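Worked example 3 (structure in, sequence out).
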């Protein structure tokens, strides 16, 4: 298994769309972010992180190919970026919907709830977003200290 940085991020658009299903939203961060893929006899997952200023790194996109979910690939990528960027940033954050899949995942990775942006998904997406049968409305931010 290896994790490496990708420069031509758009070749992984189908994987990016698994975590953020509206391409216009991906366009807002894809060029400013750094992408890493996890390759384990083929690409299994990707993560995009962006410098948000003031020592804060944000996970903008984390996706695992559906057939490889719940095998630790997403956690490996989160651990990688936390370790890789801990000297440059003091905090990592991530925004997600109130999903029974993503909330426990980030909590198990050591993230704590920090803030809520009301109506984020209803105001920024051109269609309703559902995960596990739940309509996502508010963006929930989680943070983790890196140092």
């Amino acid at each position: 298994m290896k994790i490496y940085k990708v420069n031509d991020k758009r070749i992984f658009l189908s994987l990016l769309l698994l975590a953020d299903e509206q391409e216009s939203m991906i366009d807002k961060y894809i060029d400013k972010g750094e992408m890493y893929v996890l390759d384990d006899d083929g690409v299994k997952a990707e993560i995009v992180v962006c410098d948000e200023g003031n020592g804060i790194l944000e996970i903008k996109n984390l996706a695992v190919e559906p057939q490889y979910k719940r095998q630790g690939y997403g956690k490996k990528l989160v651990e990688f970026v936390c370790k890789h960027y801990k000297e440059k940033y003091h905090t990592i954050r991530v925004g997600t919907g109130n999903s029974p899949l993503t909330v426990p995942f980030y909590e198990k990775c050591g993230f704590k709830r920090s803030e809520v942006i009301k109506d984020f998904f209803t105001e920024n997406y051109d269609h309703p977003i559902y995960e596990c049968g739940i309509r996502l409305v508010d963006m929930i931010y989680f943070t983790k200290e890196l140092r």
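Notes: The two ends are 26 Å apart (CA to CA). Residues 107 and 123 are 26 Å apart (CA to CA).
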